[in-house]
Design goal:
The chain is α/β, with parallel strands linked by helices. It folds into 2 domains: about 5-140, Response regulator (Rossmann fold, 3-Layer(aba) Sandwich); about 155-225, Winged helix-like DNA-binding domain superfamily/Winged helix DNA-binding domain (Arc Repressor Mutant, subunit A). Helix content is about 55%, strand content about 10%. The protein contains 11 helices and 5 strands, in the order βαβαβαβαβααααααα. It has helices at about 10-25, 40-45, 70-75, 90-95, 110-120, 130-150, 155-165, 170-180, 185-195, 200-210, 215-225, and strands at about 5, 30, 50-55, 80-85, 100-105. Strands 2-1-3-4-5 form a 5-stranded parallel β-sheet, with helices on both faces. It is elongated and about 75 Å long. The chain starts with a strand and ends with a helix.
């Protein structure tokens, strides 16, 4: 059973790290990363029985492993986040989810080995000031996000569908034709969207939806409903 599980999408880096830990007398295993979504990794990681997981948050292909931190911590693993990311929101989420520390790749290989060894020995690796700063950044980000998304809560479901269609580049006439309704009906929905979002144009409404992240959220929720 490995004492350290290494989750890193760069195979050479992962193998070098495993070799360096082994040279220190620490059993380490590189966890193969499947092409499937990140949650599929959980069983592979916990299956190693490792006490410590060195978790790279950026697994390539746009896959972010931050959602693995909480279930790994719940399974009794210490999670040391190893990241090249400087995004305080993502790192704050990792702290919040139970990571024992964050080690930046820019600090070098030797620093990573020392931090991993300390974490494995149960020595505190928390940078309390850095942790507090990232958690504060996360709180501010969530407050801004909630404020930006608030106007969209007032849209009816039909207005949301119209907004998504507009974002896809469809015209009022095209939407009306595909829904078998009149142009007047669709324009009424558009007016409702503009009024509730406080914009004066369809382009402005779409831009606001993009900036707030509303479109991404709406489409993700629709995809989950379709699968369910």
């Amino acid at each position: 059973m490995a004492r350290v599980a290494i989750v890193e999408d760069h195979a050479l880096v992962a193998d070098m790290l495993a070799g360096a830990l082994t040279a220190r007398g620490i059993d380490a295993a590189v966890v193969p990363i499947p092409a499937s979504p990140v949650p599929a990794l959980l069983a592979r990681i916990t299956g190693t029985g490792a006490e410590l997981v060195l978790l790279d948050l950026d697994l390539g292909g746009g896959r972010n492993a931050v959602d693995l931190v909480a279930p790994l911590a719940a399974a009794g693993c210490r999670v040391l986040v190893v990241s090249g990311l400087d995004d305080p929101v993502t790192l704050g989420r990792a702290w919040e989810a139970g990571a024992v520390g964050v080690q930046h790749k820019r600090e070098g290989f030797a620093a990573l080995l020392d931090t991993a060894t300390a974490a494995l020995q149960g020595i505190g690796v928390l940078d309390e000031m850095g942790r507090a700063r990232m958690l504060a950044d996360l709180r501010r980000h969530r407050a801004r996000e909630a404020s930006d998304l608030a106007p969209f809560e007032h849209l009816t479901e039909r207005e949301r569908e119209v907004l998504v269609a507009l974002a896809d580049g469809r015209s009022v006439s095209d939407i009306a034709s595909s829904w078998t309704v009149s142009d007047t009906t669709v324009r009424a929905h558009v007016r409702g969207i503009l009024t509730k979002l406080g914009t004066s144009s369809q382009l402005g409404a779409v831009a606001k939806a993009l900036r707030a992240g509303w479109l991404e959220r709406y489409r993700a929720a629709a995809a989950r409903r379709a699968v369910g």
